[in-house]
Amino acid sequence: xxxxxxxxPAVTTPPASGPKQTDxxxxxxxxxxxxxxxxEVGVFLGAxxxxxxxxITAAPVRDGSSMANILYQSSTIGIMALPVALLMIGGxxxxxxxxxxxxxxxxxxxxxxxxxxxxxxxxxxxxAVSLGVGFFNGWVMVRTGLPSFLVTLGTFLILQGVNLxxxxxxxxxxxTDDISDMDGFSQAKAIFASxxxxxxxxxxxxxxxxxxxxxxATWVLLxxxxxxWIFAVGGNKESARAVGVPVTFTxxxxxxxxxxxxxxxxxxxxxxxxxxxxxxxxxxxxxxxxAAVIGGCLLTGGxxxxxxxxxxxxxxxxxxQGIVYAGWNPDWFKAFLGVMLLGATLIxxxxxxTATRR
Length: 358
Hints:
Elements: H1 31-36, H2 41-57, H3 64-89, H4 97-114, H5 119-144, H6 148-171, H7 185-192, E1 195-198, E2 201-204, H8 205-223, H9 225-235, H10 237-242, H11 247-273, H12 284-294, H13 307-325, H14 333-356
Antiparallel strand pairs: 1-2
């Protein structure tokens, strides 16, 4: 007699109801906090607020040509604010950036005029000089260990004196000669200082260059090994060196990028006005640094973006032109910028603390 045994069906226990348990390593922060962690979010909201404010208080801002002027003013600041921001993310800053713009323009103008050469000779020599100034700043800082504040303050004073003294020595005046009738001028002007029409609105080419440079800088920061190096040396250069990051190359190249930006803006000024005043540029370095700080870059390094300074520069351009369009006393411009800088710094501090709070 055989006995057939049947296996009892497996009993499964339904999962306990209730919220999913997570530990601190896998917990997802709310979307709002993750957005606040982005360095450009605060300045974007600030830029929108400033734009809406002047849109309401200054009727001419609503016109397309007025907005083109605002974007132009923003681009002349923004092109330089981008490399300055990258340098700040890398843990340094450059006080000579403002006068370096004028040094570049003076070099191109005087080399071309005095040698009666094609204007492109002066442009290329100016590029070499600007890159050389950046290399000098970076090399001295790396070799001596001095703070970039002291090194570039010294360069600022040197360039300021050289700009005035050499210009007077060569031209007998404080300004360079008009170069508008020289060979190659029209081609160079088309690249650095031309305009184009969008409907009835005339837009400066610098606006396009500004956005192109911002896109390139964003790609470099977020998608390349060099971008990782910039954040690493700004966060902790000794730790970065320990894991194989070329700290010396990164620091010097960032100063040279500032030199490239100074060259480009200098060429724009030269081919816009055909001549250069040797005493200009003083104080502009603070505008570039402020645009980067308002854009979310920290003076301590290791934190920031390339998009933030774009909005920071736009806020500067918006305020600068908006005060004029509103019919206010333009003497209040710097005071407004100071309030904006302090406010943006406090907002950035609050954003970072909120974003990192668990």
